[in-house]
Structure to design on (246 residues):
């Protein structure tokens, strides 16, 4: 696995990074609605599980990469993590939606939203107590470089918590998930978001992502230790954890 897929077929050879940014800008106004619809709300439970793991580390500073509209960052503060979260995303459109949500909850002092690139982080080495990604690591154009940057900005003995879609292996979830992902989701996504490519890209990017042991090996190559992968909801998603050595 690890095949490069992009949202659009672009005659000008636009980078994956630019295409992902353009795609999320396009669907930002409907993203939250569709995200919760497609997952039937299970994504909320998955995030909560990640945050309970993160809370044990008692971080003071968190970088939430590919933050989108800020759901992971908001939930971390709501669940009582006493930290400042830097919520970063390529898409300014998504961040604009997130800013409204953050302001509505009065979390402006706890969450800073900023546009940025996972492969070129504007932070010093050893800057954060934790690094989180919710359904975004598969969108990194250069995954190895993104993981290297993840490692660089984490403080020694700090963790990364990564929530990402997986490919179920067992009958009948594998078959149902495949049909839903390939046919139902793209049709509904096109109808609601008006972007025919966005929800075709989603299943393609999941299929291409180096999941499980293959992804853990990439984290290991980046320097992380104490690696683990936890399967969720029959293998639909996974939580990956790695620690930067002390």
């Amino acid at each position: 696995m690890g095949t490069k897929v992009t949202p659009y077929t672009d005659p000008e050879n636009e980078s994956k990074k630019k295409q992902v940014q353009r795609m999320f800008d396009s669907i930002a106004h409907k993203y939250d609605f569709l995200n919760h619809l497609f997952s039937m709300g299970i994504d909320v439970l998955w995030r909560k599980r990640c945050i309970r793991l993160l809370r044990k580390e008692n971080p003071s500073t968190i970088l939430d990469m590919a933050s989108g509209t800020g759901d992971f960052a908001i939930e971390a503060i709501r669940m009582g993590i006493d930290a400042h979260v830097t919520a970063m995303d390529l898409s300014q459109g998504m961040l604009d939606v997130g800013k409204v949500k953050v302001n509505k909850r009065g979390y402006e002092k706890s969450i800073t939203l900023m546009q940025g690139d996972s492969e070129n982080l504007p932070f010093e080495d050893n800057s954060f107590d934790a690094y989180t990604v919710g359904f975004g690591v598969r969108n990194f154009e250069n995954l190895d470089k993104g993981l290297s940057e993840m490692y660089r900005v984490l403080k020694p003995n700090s963790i990364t918590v990564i929530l990402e879609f997986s490919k179920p292996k067992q009958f009948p979830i594998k078959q149902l998930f495949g049909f839903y992902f390939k046919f139902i989701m793209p049709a509904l996504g096109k109808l609601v978001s008006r972007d025919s490519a966005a929800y075709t890209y989603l299943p393609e990017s999941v299929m291409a992502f180096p999941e499980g042991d293959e992804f853990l090996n990439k984290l290991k190559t980046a320097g992380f230790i104490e690696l683990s992968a936890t399967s969720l909801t029959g293998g639909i998603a996974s939580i990956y954890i790695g620690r930067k050595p002390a």
About this structure: The first strand starts at residue 61 and ends at 65. Helices lie at 16-39, 42-55, 71-78, 92-105, 143-153, 173-193, 198-208, 212-222. The chain has one domain: 16-243.
